[in-house]
Amino acid sequence: MAKSSRSLKNILKVAFGTFGSRVLGLLRDTLTLAFLGVNAVSSAFFFGFTIPNLFRRLMGEGALSSAFIPIFSQTLKNGGEEKAFDFLNKIITRAFLVLCAIVVLGISISEIFYFFAEKSAHFSGERFLAGSAFTSIMLPYMILICLAALICAALNVLGHFALPALTAVWLNIAIISSILIGAALFKGNSNAIAKCMCAGVLAGGLAQLFIPLFQLKRSGWRFSPSLKSTSEVREFNALFLPALAGASVIQANILVSNMLALKVSDIAVSAIYVSSRLIELPLGIFTFAIITVYFPKLSLASANSEGGEYSRHFSNAIISLMLICVPSCVGLIALAPEILKLLFEWGKFGNADVELCTPILILGSIGIPFYSLATLSSRGFHSVKDMKTPMKVSAMAFIVNLTSALLLMGRFGAMGLVGANVISGIFQAALLSALFSKRRKMQNVFFEILKILTASVLMGLSLWILKPCLSSLLSGKLSAAANAAILVPLGIAIYTMLLFVFKFREFGEVKKLMRRKD
Known about the structure:
Number of domains: 1
Helix content: over 70%
Number of helices: 18
Low-confidence stretches: 512-518
Structural class: mainly alpha
Membrane topology: Multi-pass membrane protein
Family: Belongs to the MurJ/MviN family.
Distance between the termini: 10 Å
Strand content: under 5%
Number of strands: 0
Keywords: Cell membrane, Cell shape, Cell wall biogenesis/degradation, Membrane, Peptidoglycan synthesis, Transmembrane, Transmembrane helix, Transport
Largest sheet: none
Transmembrane segments: 31-51, 95-117, 137-158, 165-186, 192-216, 236-256, 276-296, 317-340, 360-381, 393-412, 418-437, 449-466, 478-502
Radius of gyration: 23 Å
Pathway: Cell wall biogenesis; peptidoglycan biosynthesis
C-alpha cells in the first residue's frame, strides 16, 4: 500500500504541475486569438509552432523516454550514479549534434519554400509566406525542448516529478509576456506581434532547458561530452530507432493534418488548434501523469517476470485513464459552445468563431478516450521492449488518417480533417489493445469501464437537460460563465454519485490511501 500511496502522490504532482501549465496555455491561446484573431497570421504562427512541438512529442513523450528510461534506470541500479550520468552525457551529445543538423536542414527547406512561394500564384497567400518565416525563427526551439525532455526523463528516474511537470509553465509565461510586449509596441500589427511571440518561444525554451538542468546538477550530474560507444548506448540505439520510427509516423500524421488544414482555408488551422487545446487538457494532464508514473513500474515488473504484478499495474492504469477521459469527452461534447465562449471569445475572436469551432470541438472530443488508450498500449509494448509492433500499427493508422482526410476534406473541410483524426485514433487504439491483450491478460477491466461509460452518459444527459434552463435565464458571456460555474461541478457530482451507486472498485482504494499516514 505504501507503493500505491507514493504512486498516487507522484501522479498528483505531475497532474497539478501539468494543470498549471495547461491553464497558462489556455490564457496564452486566449491572448493570442484576442490580439491576432482567427486569420492567416494566427494560422501561420500555429503552423510554425507545431513543427518544433512535433519533435517535443517525438522525443519527450515518445521514442526518447521509451528507450532512455529503462536503460538509465538499469544503469543507475547496477552501476551507480556515475555510470548512469556518463550514459546520459553520451545520449545528450548525440542528440545535440543530430538536432542541430535537423534544424539547419529545416531552416534551409523553409527558406527555399519561402523563395518559391513569393513567385508562385498557388502558394502566394500570407499564411504560406508568414508560416515559412515563423517556422524558420522557431525551429531552434526544437534543440532546447528535446534536450530538456532528456534532462526531465533523468529527473523522473531519480524520483523528481514536480519540477519536470512545470517546464511548460516557463514557456507559457515567456509567450504571454511576448504577446503583451508585442501588443504594446506594435498596436494592431498582427505580423509584428506574431514575430514577438516567436522570440518568446525561444526564450521559453531556454528556461525549459536550464531550470531542470540546474536541479540535475544539484543531484550530482556534470556534463562531459562524449561520443564513445558503450553497451548501454548500443542497447539504447536498438530500442530507440524502431521507437523513433513509430513515433515519427505519429508526428508525421499530425504534420500532414496541419499541412492539409493550411491548404483548406485561412482559418482551418486556427479552428482546429483552438479545439485541440481543449481536447489536450485531459490528455496532457491525466494521461501524461498516469503514464509518467506507471511506465517505470511496468518496465520493472516486466524485467522481473512478474506477470500478475504487471497485469495489475496495467489494469489500474487503464481504469485510471478511462475514469478521467470518458467523462471529459462527454462533458466537452455537452458544454462545447459555452466553454469556447467563456475561454476564447475575447477581442478579435467573436461569436462567429465560437460557432465555427463548436462542431470541430464536439467531433474531436470523441477521440479523447481512444488517443489515451493508444498511448498507454504503446507504452505497454515499450515496457516489454517491443518497439516494432507500435511502429507498424502507427504506420497503418497514418494510412487510415491520410486516406480518410483526403476523402473527407473536400466536402467537409476542417470537420473532415478532424473526423479523419478520430477515425485513425479509434483504429489505432482498437488494434493496439487487441494485440496487447494477447500477451497480457487484464484483471476485471471490462465491468469497471462499463460503469464509467454508463455514469458518463447519464451525466451528459443530465447536463443536456439542465443547460437550456440556465441559457434561458442569461445570455452571452454571462450565460457561458454560469454554465461553467454551475454545470461543471454539478456534472462531476452526478458522475461521482453514479460511480458510488455502481460500486466502482477504485473508491475503496482511494479511501485506504486517504486514511493512511505516511
